[in-house]
Amino acid sequence: MTSTATDAPARTVDTCARVGVIGSGIAGASTAFALAYRGVDVIVVDDATAGQATAASAGIIAPWVSTSTGAYYETYAAGGNFYPEFLKRLIALGIPDLGYRRSGALVVNNDPDTLAEAAATIRERVAAARSVAGENHDVDAAELAELFPPIAPDMTGLLITGGGRVDGRVLRDAILTGARQYGAKFVADSAQAITASSRGTWSVRTTSAMDEFDALVIAGGARSADLLDRLGHPVGITPQRGQLLHLGLRGVNTSPWPTIHPLDHHYITPFDGGRIVAGATREDGVGFDVRATASGTKQVLDDALRIAPGLAEATVLEARIGVRPMSTREGALPYAGAVPGADGLWLASGFGAGGLTMGPLIGDGLARLILGEEATEIAHLAL
Ligand SMILES: Cc1cc2nc3c(=O)[nH]c(=O)nc-3n(C[C@H](O)[C@H](O)[C@H](O)COP(=O)(O)OP(=O)(O)OC[C@H]3O[C@@H](n4cnc5c(N)ncnc54)[C@H](O)[C@@H]3O)c2cc1C
């Protein structure tokens, strides 16, 4: 992003303000919730276009086992640490289903040396986040088969007991329900044009109405770049397609099964009711084409069955496709903060492959920034 006003303080608002949020994925929903929670009048606009990353996501909340490093990892880990506090806020509202379960994360490999090398880093990370990440211990082939019966017999592993998994759709809806309970409103429409007024407000034109806000948050996922581009504020966010498959194991209690991480980009997430999610592709250069393709499906199945051949007879229930908002700046660092040179305009996007984990933390921090408070935990995500 280029700007002539990067050093000017961002214009903040007070709790009497009216704030618009474009996008109701994890970024927009979390920001809207955090603003409404603090008494702000919030309107969320979302057009439910196919490809929402939050709706497709695999739901793994176990940053410690990821291959990410540097500031991206620190943000990812901080997001994991914030989850229990965030979920408490929703539980306090009496929202019955958050789609979350702490069922453990299991790192697996068939090469003991590869596993041992990765385990050293993971153990350090888990120790640094002990209250959330829980304990860890080595798992031999016999215990592995008890914890996750479809696993290949030549694997051994490392179990992190605090690993969690969440149904992105259920959590998103729970957050929006919570935001509504604090007074937020939801508009199911497309934000077609955004304009800055001379009064210092932001107008959003949807297909059916025009609305005016004291501050506006762009949380449009991978489409955020296009929205900002049209306003003359280019930002480095590109779409990355992720295809995953939902498999079904009839009559099997998969609820307590941990998530499976074979030290690669693919993984397996068990949910309740025999549902197993296998994913995911990472496809750059295909834009917003949200089809399930033959090669994507093959890749996901090949990866999953190599790790867990016991899934071979599972039913293929559905393919889900989401478009990850990938940040192109150094270290793939997400964006959260004021848009320089555009008073009252804010951005929360570019969360990449760990956004379901980071979203609540970043949304909470951004809401405080908009209200003129400190949010040191996301200061490094400024534009
Ligand atoms: C296959 C896959 C698996 C993943 N697995 C994990 C995981 O296991 N753990 C994890 O932590 N993260 C995971 N992620 C990453 C995570 O899902 C994303 O980083 C996160 O959901 C991004 O959230 P978002 O709100 O920025 O974008 P989105 O969820 O894409 O939401 C953006 C919303 O903005 C709306 N919008 C855009 N433009 C407009 C407009 N002009 N008007 C109205 N509405 C608009 C869109 O319709 C959409 O609903 C995964 C992602 C994918 C694709």
UniProtKB/TrEMBL annotation:
The lineage of its organism: Bacteria, Bacillati, Actinomycetota, Actinomycetes, Micrococcales. This is FAD-dependent oxidoreductase. It comes from Brevibacterium permense. Residues 19-369 form the FAD dependent oxidoreductase domain. Pfam families: DAO. Its cofactor is FAD. It comes from the Bacteria. PANTHER family: D-AMINO ACID DEHYDROGENASE, SARCOSINE DEHYDROGENASE-RELATED. Belongs to the DadA oxidoreductase family. InterPro entries: FAD-dep_OxRdtase, FAD/NAD-bd_sf. Keywords: Flavoprotein, Oxidoreductase.
